[in-house]
């Protein structure tokens, strides 16, 4: 699909195009990554489902943003984009957004211990400067959600956890405190909504920018690509939790004999279908809407 706009950024599974001086188009593909690499087999509808979910979250989170004097970047999605010259094949997987001055920090909130957070905790009892109680294990619920910011890594690199002081260095004390408060408030609201849907929102990453001095929530929000979603029913601290969306893919890759270094194999049709179903199920459980 050729897009009639200039490509300004490209992630593993998404692209950003310049529509005009003030607006960008975020396009979510059907590509899926696992173990840090993009797989050769797309998951049909993934881009549309994650875009619809993100749009729904922006609506849910608007009151939280307003309470903090902040906004979000979403302007339009879906068929409303046809008038902007967005090709019909892309409209459903795209968000037209305000172009912001992005802040150079990833705003991570964690309500559960997992992944790199567990690794750091096991070495130091903390995630950088955030001290945690003794006795936590992979998957433990934290006593309170914590703000564990990270740097924005270049493509192919991993984000690196930073302390609050480094956020202050990057954006100033007042803005750093606003980012922490807003990140935690958004996480709490998101986790509460997810809990009602039987989904654990273990952690998530927000990206913020500014427009005319106002803090603006950007990027995609609270999707399985920016967050860890776990089925609440199987939550059991002490071992890695099954991923809501990618577990079939990981399990199949593990049994496929793939070495995690070579070009990854194509996914079998059944794994693709089951994974597509997981994205649709996440959308339906969270939003209470039917996908179809
Ligand atoms: C922006 N990214 C990261 C996201 C990618 C890369 N509203 C905005 N204004 C200005 N810049 C950005 C945004 C947003 N969102 C975010 N890059 C630019 C990113 C998605 C896919 F390849």
Backbone CA Rg = 19 Å
Number of strands: 18
Structure ligands: ligand PZK
Give the count of helical stretches: 7
Query: How is the biggest beta sheet arranged?
Result: 5 strands, antiparallel
Strand fraction: 25-35%
Task: Give the rounded overall mean pLDDT.
Answer: 97
Task: List segments where confidence is low: pLDDT < 50 over at least 5 consecutive residues.
Answer: none
The coarse silhouette is globular
Helicity level, as a percent range?
25-40%
Q: What is the N-to-C order of secondary-structure elements (H for helix, E for strand)?
A: EEEEEHEEHEEEHEEEEHHEEEEHH
Biggest sheet: strand arrangement: 1-2-3-8-7
- Oligomerization status of the protein chains: single chain
Task: Give the helix/strand class.
Answer: alpha+beta
End-to-end CA span: 24 Å
Give an overview in words:
With 292 residues, the protein is α+β, with helices and mostly antiparallel strands. It is built from 7 helices and 18 strands. Strands 1-2-3-8-7 form a 5-stranded antiparallel β-sheet. Strands 10, 13, 14, 15 and 18 form a 5-stranded antiparallel β-sheet that branches. The longest helix has 24 residues, at 173-196. The mean pLDDT is 97. It binds ligand PZK. The site of ligand PZK has 17 residues, from strand 1, strand 2, strand 3 and strand 8.
């Amino acid at each position: 699909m050729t897009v009639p706009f200039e490509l300004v950024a490209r992630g593993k599974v998404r692209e950003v195009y310049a529509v005009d001086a003030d607006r960008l188009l975020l396009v979510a593909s059907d590509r899926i990554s696992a173990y840090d690499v993009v797989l050769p087999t797309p998951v049909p509808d993934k881009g549309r489902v994650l875009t619809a979910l993100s749009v729904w979250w922006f609506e849910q989170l608007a009151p939280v943003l307003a309470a903090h004097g902040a906004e979000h970047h979403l302007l339009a999605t879906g068929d409303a984009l046809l008038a902007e010259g967005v090709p019909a094949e892309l409209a459903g997987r795209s968000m037209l957004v305000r172009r912001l001055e992005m802040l150079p920090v990833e705003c991570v909130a964690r309500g559960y211990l997992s992944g790199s957070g567990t690794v750091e905790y096991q070495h130091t009892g903390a995630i950088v400067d955030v001290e945690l109680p003794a006795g936590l294990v992979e998957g433990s619920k934290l006593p309170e959600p914590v703000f564990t910011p990270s740097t924005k890594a270049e493509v192919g690199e991993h984000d690196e956890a930073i302390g609050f002081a480094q956020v202050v260095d990057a954006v100033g004390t007042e803005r750093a405190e606003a980012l922490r408060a807003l990140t935690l408030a958004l996480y709490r609201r998101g986790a509460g909504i997810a809990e009602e849907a039987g989904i654990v929102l273990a952690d998530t990453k927000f990206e913020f920018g500014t427009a005319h001095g106002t803090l603006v929530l950007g990027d995609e929000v609270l999707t399985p690509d920016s967050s860890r979603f776990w089925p609440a029913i199987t939550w059991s601290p002490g071992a890695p939790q099954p991923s809501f969306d990618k577990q079939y893919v990981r399990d199949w890759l593990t049994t496929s004999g793939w070495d995690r270094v070579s070009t990854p194999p194509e996914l079998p049709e059944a794994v693709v279908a089951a994974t597509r179903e997981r994205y649709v199920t996440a959308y339906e459980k969270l939003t209470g809407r039917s996908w179809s």
